[in-house]
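Please produce the structure of this protein holding 9-methylguanine.
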Amino acid sequence: MNPSTPSRPVLDCAGRMLDLSRPLVMGVINTTPDSFSDGGTLFRGDHLDPELAIERARDMVDAGAAILDIGGESTRPGAAPVSAQQEMDRVLPLVERITAELDVVISIDTSSPQLMTEAAARGAGLINDVRALQREGALEAARDTGLPVCLMHMQGEPDTMQAAPTYANVVDEVGAFLEARVAACEAIGIPRERLLLDPGFGFGKTVAHNLSLLEGLPRLAAAGLPLLVGLSRKSLIGKLINREVDERVPASLALAVLAVERGAAIVRTHDVAPTWDALAMCAALRSLQGND
Ligand code: 9MG
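Below is the modeled complex.
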């Protein structure tokens, strides 16, 4: 390589490379019957239908998703926890099929050390942990997979987190928490080059907290690690502009663009096609600015 050419930021996800020099789309695949936005849509009766799930995954890849985030535990406000076995039964067959059939990075949305290990063995390329590897054994399990990890901030647990979220300064506190989790990862042998950060919009946050975090994203980005954000169809949209869950796509796109403009590298979404277009416009604008 020409020594004057700046190297592109690339994340190695079990051999699949994610080029982070342009904003990327992460599509959400929920294998749960009760997720807040798309819960149960992959079910026939009371059973997850693998054909519906693989069809959804293929559609998302065709629409431009670089990553698919597969989850087996609902983390919507008020959700009850599920057993590790139930989570594995929901998620692992799908990880195996997507690995075999599609060319995409599979992210495993879990806090379970056992599922991290099993999913990595079946081809997952990224760990997305809304509890930032705080469960017993999670740091070690994540380290041993060798996969990149997204560390997300959450105040409390899903069943109670929206009861009374409280911060003196939400951006400072989220930043300090993420910094401490990065230090815990480094101490156990997960290098920072394998880490992504996520402020956890909607996870133990009021509307005002979420807006402060959106405003404060550049400060979180200053840590130098790629930022992942999930704002898709979230309740702040309902509360701010009074839209039902299925009417929140345009506002989600606006939030995705604002987040990318403030430093987000990856946008987690239920609506891959329109989000890909919105982020492609951000990338196009950036490349024009770069060529001025
Ligand atoms: C699983 N999940 C639901 N919302 C999320 C968000 O905003 N970020 C991440 N990383 N995961 C999320």
